[in-house]
Amino acid sequence: MNKRLLLASLVAGALAIPMAYFAGERPLPAADHLDPPGRTNPNNDSTPDFAADIADIYVFHDANKVTMIVTFGGPAAVGLPARYDPNVLYRVAISNQAPRTTADHVITFQFAQETGVANGPWGIRLRGIPGVNGDMIGSVERTLVKDGVKVFAGLTDDPFFFDSQGFNESRAMGTLRFRNDRNFFGAQNITSVVIEVPRDRLENGTNVLDFWSITDRLGGQFNG
After folding, report:
1. Are strands 136-139 and 122-127 parallel, antiparallel or unpaired?
2. Looking at the DSSP assignment, which residues form a beta bridge with residue 61?
């Protein structure tokens, strides 16, 4: 699964139209929140690969830091646990120069359970974070801090907003029927990894920054 967008001050909507960093607005292709349905919809696949299915990648920045959020394993009803799979490797790729399809930084993360403990607690290991000496390792559901970087992994409210009823009505009636008080994902959760990095570790002058995320499963790569 591969999703791509530019560094943006705000990312929202059914299909994010990202804004270039210190440049004009420029749309890019993007997959929708439930794409591909063959891997997330049990009606299409009796064994959907929830953990490897990236829902969204969000990128925010201010004058000092860049915050990257990768969501996956959802949407899930309230009460269901987060989805951690030790056999899925997640990557956040960052390009800060031409060619913009080549990663200049690659942050990887993977989950694992404590060994020697039945149904032991889950933890996360991150590698390749610019400016971090070695790996970041720690438990999920808490904030990890190292070398000026912050990381959180765990279950969160699904931040994606979409009025699916309005979408269906708009298609059927031929007029826009969207409402901002109806959110199909509003009562659902998702698994998230949040990575906050000092901005100057990613920048390359005033070049545009591109971000995309990829999952790899042992035995083969999903890239769509």
Report:
1. antiparallel
2. 66
Average pLDDT over residues 189-207: 95
Kindly state the tokens that stand for 119: 């149904």
Asked if 150 and 144 count as a contact pair (C-beta separation under 8 A), the reply is yes
The pLDDT value recorded for residue 184 is 75
Which residue bears the tokens 């969000």?
Answer: 58
Which residues 6+ apart lie within 8 Å of 149 measured at CB?
Answer: 129, 131, 132, 136, 195, 196, 197, 198
Alpha-carbon distance of 49 to 39, in angstroms, equals: 5
Q: How far apart are CA 145 and CA 162, in angstroms?
A: 33
Strands 143-146 and 188-198, by their bridges, are unpaired
Beta bridge partners of 170: none
Positive or negative CA dihedral for 126, 15, 50, 221? negative
User: Against a cut of 0.85, is the pTM above it?
Assistant: no
How is residue 38 written in tokens? 């063959």
Measure the CA–CA gap between 132 and 152, rounded to whole angstroms: 16
Side-chain half-sphere CA neighbours of 60 within 13 A: 10
Instruction: Write the DSSP symbol of residue 19.
Output: B
Which among 123, 96, 104 has a CA at the least distance from the CA of 112? 123
State the Cα–Cα distance between residues 66 and 52, nearest whole angstrom: 24
pLDDT tens-place string over residues 210-221? 999 998 887 644
List pLDDT tens digits, range 32-70. 666 544 455 566 666 778 888 888 899 999 999 999 999
Cα–Cα distances (Å) from 72 to 118, 149, 172, 191, 224, in that order, read: 25, 22, 30, 5, 15
